[in-house]
Amino acid sequence: MPNSFVVCKLFLLLVLFIFHYKDRKSKLNRLLTMDTDLLEQQDIDLSPDLQDHMQPQEEAAQKVKQYYRFWILPKLWISINFDRLTLLALFDRNREILENVLAVILAILVAFLGSVLLIEGFFKDIWVFQFCLVIASCQYSLLKSVQPDSSSPRHGHNRIIAYSRPVYFCLCCGLIWLLDYGSRNISTTRFRLYGMAFTNPLLLLSARDLVIVFTLCFPIVFFIGLLPQVNTFVMYLCEQLDIHVFGGNATTSLLAALYSFICSIVAVALLYGLCYGALKDSWDGQHIPVLFSIFCGLLVAISYHLSRQSSDPSVLFSLVQSKFFPNSEDKNPEDPLSEVKDPLPEKLRNSVVSKLFNFFLIHSKRLLYVGFYVLYALVGTVGFVTHYVLPQLRKQLPWHCFSHPLLKTKEYYQFEVRNAAHVMWFEKLHIWLLFVEKNVIYPLIVLNELSSSAKNIYVYCGGKLIVTGLKLLRSSFSSPTCQYVTVIFTVLFFTFDYKSFTETMLLDLFFMSILFSKLWELFYKLRFVYTYIAPWQITWGSAFHAFAQPFAVPHSAMLFVQAAVSAFFSTPLNPFLGSAIFITSYARPVKFWERDYNTKRVDHSNTRLASQLDRNPGSDDNNLNSIFYEHLTRSLQHSLCGDLLLGRWGNYSTGDCFILASDYLNALVHLIEIGNGLVTFQLRGLEFRGTYCQQREVEAITEGVEEDEGFCCCEPGHLPHMLSFNAAFGQRWLAWEVLVTKYVLEGYSITDNSAASMLQVFDLRKILTTYYVKGIIYYVTTSPKLEEWLANETMQEGLRLCTDRNYVDVDPTFNPNIDEDYDHRLAGISRESFCMIYLNWIEYCCSRREKPLDSSKDSPLVTLCYGLCVLGRRALGTASHHMSSNLESFLYGLHALFKGDFRISSIRDEWIFADMELLRKVVVPGIRMSLKLHQDHFTSPDEYDDPSVLYEAITTHEENLVIAHEGDPAWRSAVLSNSPSLLALRHVMDDGTNEYKIIMLNKRYLSFRVIKVNKECVRGLWAGQQQELVFLRNRNPERGSIQNAKQALRNMINSSCDQPIGYPIYVSPLTTSYSDSHEQLKEILGGAISLGNIRSFIVSTWHRLRKGCGAGCNSGGNIEDSDAGGGASCTSNNATINESQSSMSQGGGSATTGQGPGAVQHPPVAAHPTTLPAAHPPTHPSTLGKIKIKHSNNFIQVQSYRQNWPSSSLDQA
Questions:
Q1: Predicted local confidence at residue 192, as pLDDT
Q2: pTM for the complete prediction?
Q3: Contact yes or no for 780/786 (Cβ under 8 A)
Q4: Long-range contacts of range 1098-1107, CB-CB < 8 Å, 24 or more positions apart?
Q5: Considering only Cβ atoms within 10 Å of each terminal Cβ, which end of the chain, N or C, has fewer?
Q6: What DSSP assignment string belongs to 398-424?
Q7: H-assigned helices in 533-654
Q8: Residue 1101's CB: how many other CB atoms inside 10 A?
Q9: pLDDT of amino acid 332
Q10: Rounded to whole angstroms, how far apart are CA atoms 386 and 513?
Q11: Is the pLDDT of residue 298 over 80?
């Protein structure tokens, strides 16, 4: 013991030493912010704590040394020499006062709790020294943190990581003290669960010793990186408690985790009063108290509402803000996108409103004991069919035995999908089974068990009843995929195998649901490990991989233990440096990435004008192609939740990862939060033209295995519609599987053509210039400001020389090989030659105006057109550096004008500054439209020679086509607004390439392959990359951990990490998709159960009844009119009858009336009731017409809306 007290005294001196450093640190920070030159010029005695040593006169010119006087004891101090870089290497710089205060508080807590444990005698001999080292390391980390730390999620200095060690030390010390106190002061009442006494003193002492050993191992724990930083730990803890205790969902941020956890606690607190009153009430064998029925109904309603609520409160807050503070969102008038209204936030708010008014109230009576087995048998049958049989039958390779899906969609055999996905019968069956399972069967089971368990639960243990019921109901509403397995196993296990250990079926289901979630996670981890290290398919990316493969074989037992521990704590199991050696990483939430990294697209709205003109930022393919992944995210936001519910992506759960692959798009979709009618996901888009390794893995997921005929080393073939032995074996040893090959999603088809090949010869450039001139003439004649421009005196003065009929512009930039109106005699472009070529076009455009103007040869309109066309071509020549004959220079100038970079270099063109709208609304659209017309010229070379055809073509393109530069914010707005067609000229400068492409986008339905990846494979590879690049600082771009591994898609997964760890070209923000935005799902289920929808249903039903009764009272009617809106009374039917009578009287009694070719007279209905065409309509789609039957007195009027009805069918009618 005396040795221990000596060590304690030394430790206290060390603590005082650190505190004294901390007190002086704020003053040092102020010094560090000052200029070093100023410090050298200032007097030496800057403060009482700073002094210098006297220097000789000959050394006065040298650099002055500065010292810091540190007091060890009163009247005992030492001088510490420092400069700025030395001090920064010694201490961290705190930026705020709050950081200093927090550091001092944590240092005090560490010292206090450490001293308490030392005094209590928890450590003996050498372990006292080890514990003091742990205390010293925790306190010193507040002065100088480890950078980079093994659990740091980012490059560079991480300010949060400095507080990890002291916070965890305080938690462990507090836990040690509580466990020791509990073991010594345990009450006689012991908490037992499944026969195990959890309040046994021996068990508490064992737990205390385990925490003590863990605390002593802090240096190793933090070196390996087994504990996350503090904010990640808080988010992880709240998320895990909310999921496993309250049945919540994954969360998207620390604020969302706290918000969701608090909502669950508030819900339990609100229900506790009702539950307490219900349990105090009298129970008998025949009746259930009314208060308990009210409690059950509110429990179901609150559980349903919480399952429908997103964990992110920002959308709800924006809804409240828009309702109560509509003018609080101030817009920046200088924002280029201020006029562009994004419809997405309003759609999200409407979806949240519909979910807030959802209600689902179930009142359940006690089920008969006979129905107990029937109900659980129903759960097993419905769950097995819905979540196993149907998904397997719809997979691309069912059970990895069949070579094609057994239940095929309509689009399966289509080469090119042109319409939205057709809803199949098995999709309707799946959604109805899912609806009944999670909204009827599971609530009945939980309510039945609540009623059965309530009588056996102590009155003060109502919280146990609330928590278990809330967890089971919320989890069944949100993710019922694997619930049937848990329920059936629990019933069989505690009913037939270990009936004596049951703790009521309600608690059994609660704990078994937690156990099964961990077992599923362990299953996925082991499957990933065995797939990754299988010796017949492992790929060695480096020499270390070859060494690690045999080294890992003897440690298989340790690997299994690591997998079990990581599954218990939900931590990733990552391959070390991509090898076969696996280590456990620190705990992470389902979201995985602590940093909210989102791609910021570079365009003209967020770059300086000078950089746009000189360097053309954002001209690489990755930045320009990121907009397509952003549009794909928007498309998924509208359809993903509904498609998941329809079973188009197979079975899914929280944290699952999918890959969407098409001709050029390859994106990883990470499902984060899965609620009842909502899904929060994140999309990570990969490069269009990836690396060699990425291309090999893309080929692996796109190539089929149906043609494989191998059986071991021979090729005997395979059975019809079945896979060969080698193919079936290989599919079972993959960390991914192809679910769907024809997943239909709305997007853009991208066509890129080389501009150099389209403008290689002079004739093609001349055609482009001609369309350029005609485009300028079109836009100036159709402009509403034309009359204002013609009356502008400044423009008239600037164009005064052009009014002369003999005027000629002899600028050297004009070229006879490019300009069609070039005058060879005058060596320039004269007004006369211009009129010879373009006067006819000017006259036609002017004739199409509502108010025609004078378009004669000497008119001001022709002068203005001539001046603009000369200016436009001179600007093209200037941008081309007066080298239009050179193709590269011509393309450079064309791209400069296309993005709006017009440089007025001639004094003869300065008249354009009188109104810059001429450039924005006339010249720029002219050069952009010429590119589209030049493309059309290849399909119809002589079609645009007719002015009317050319005029209509430009008008049509103006309405249906968006032509803009890809750096223009209008381009992004047009893509996200689902414009039907877009066109742009792209200049790509990346990796030494310098080429120009004409990009054409057409909106259509795209076909994707959906590949499901083992989520533990994704989490493990992500964790491995983060550790390798951030902590181990491996900067090798060809490192072994990113080489292709087809069995795990290692390169594609590692490429999708956040930059700079990975290199995705787009990472979407966390996006929530609601089922209310899926039209096909709303047609099947009728939308959400809300007050508004119930009111609409009642009103529409009432209108249909009124319409039917009105039609019946008048011996005739049209039911289709009631479907179209209803609400018409009997008078509307009478009006229709009167119209038909008057029209027939005007026909002169002929067989065909004036209402249509199909109106004929017939005998009464009762005479020939079965000879109507409506009873036997033609079956061919081309001849199927819409029939309306109107009763008028004793005649029937038949109207056909198709002209190709066979006359024989009408004659028979």
A1: 77
A2: 0.81
A3: yes
A4: 1100/1126, 1103/1127
A5: N
A6: GGGTBSS-SS--TTTT-SS--SPPPPP
A7: 543-552, 556-569, 609-614, 621-645
A8: 11
A9: 47
A10: 19
A11: yes
